[in-house]
Amino acid sequence: MIQSSELRHIPSLRSLDERSLSALAGVMVRREFEDGAMVVRQGAPADGIYLVLKGHIRVTRQLPDGSNVGLVTLGPGALFGALAALDGRSRAADCLAWGRVHTCFLSLSDFNALMEGVTPTALRFQVAVLRTLFTDVRSTNQRLAELATLPEVDLSADGTLITGLA
């Protein structure tokens, strides 16, 4: 079982009062992973969302050619898995434990209940999820802008130019 005190330090949950934190903690489950363990597999259906309590999660995406590209490393306080939980599509990336990782897991049914709820706790949780998604979008936009400044490099065998976005 998760204690509300473990959730209090998570930036995206700071708008939740003690009662809301306790309610959220009551439906979350602790999950621990050893170094290299697959937490979320790209292409799998969503089963819930995660909050990182301790450790780091490496997010990678497999490209159509079978190669993998690192996207980001998430640390304590990060929420991940919400996108697939929200839109019902498959997981967009692999999430692997980097070192020993402690997480809180919120099942898809509990996540959906909070996202559809109108109680003060549900509304605060919805704002927390939206803030996380907005932060992720802004970060992605920044990274794309940085990649767009990379010079074109000829990486193909046939001489086709491939940019830094490849």
How would you describe the overall organization of this protein?
This protein has a single domain (4-147), classed as Jelly Rolls. It is 35% helix and 30% strand. It contains five helices and eight strands, in the order ααβββββαβααββ. It has helices at residues 4-7, 18-27, 82-87, 108-116, 120-148; strands at residues 29-33, 38-40, 48-62, 68-74, 79-80, 94-107, 153-154, 161-162. Helix 2 (18-27) packs across helix 5 (120-148) and helix 4 packs across helix 5 (120-148). It is globular, with a radius of gyration of 18 Å. The termini are far apart.
From the structure above, extract its key features:
single chain, 166 residues, alpha+beta, Jelly Rolls, two-stranded antiparallel sheet, 8 strands
How are the SSEs ordered, and which strands pair?
Layout lengths: L3 H4 L10 H10 L1 E5 L4 E3 L7 E15 L5 E7 L4 E2 L1 H6 L6 E14 H9 L3 H29 L4 E2 L6 E2 L4
Helix pairs in contact: 2-5, 4-5
Largest sheet: 6 strands, antiparallel
CATH architecture: Sandwich
**What class, by secondary structure content?**
alpha+beta
Tally of alpha and pi helices: 5
Q: At the fourth CATH level, what is the homologous superfamily?
A: Jelly Rolls
Oligomer: single chain
Tally of DSSP β-strands: 8
Euclidean distance between termini CA atoms:
43 Å
- Stated plainly, the CATH topology is called Jelly Rolls
Helix content: 25-40%
Query: N-to-C SSE series?
Result: HHEEEEEHEHHEE
Q: Report the mean per-residue pLDDT as an integer.
A: 90
Strand content: 25-35%
Tally of structural domains: 1
The geometry reads as globular
